Amino acid sequence: MSMDFSAKIRETENVIRRLSGEISSHHHNVERLRQTKDRLIELYDIFIENSEHVSKPSFTKNTWNGELANEFLSFRQNEWKRSYLAIPHNQLNNRIEQIEERINQIDSKMIRLENQVYGKRVHLSYLESRQREALT
Description:
Blueprint: H1 2-49, H2 67-135
């Protein structure tokens, strides 16, 4: 009978180790995602800070003049700037939201795994106490 408990104890310990390894791996992944998110937020700020560079160099009447110059300046000011600002507002924001969603998913999975580990530890304690009883 105690051999049966020993095998169950080893099996339960192995499951706890495997689940703990998964939790550790998920912690590492969440940390990497948080670092990536922080870097994207930095890039977002850089994009916004540098938006005025889209309309440079500036042209004066001495360097370029006429209807084409006006069309170009209007295009650069409206279309280029709008496209430029779409990068942080749309693309970076979307990626940041996707990363936050993934972090939340992994956090939820870690909670489930931690609950499983807790349950396995309770079961392990039960098996160990039963084994001690069987030996006495």
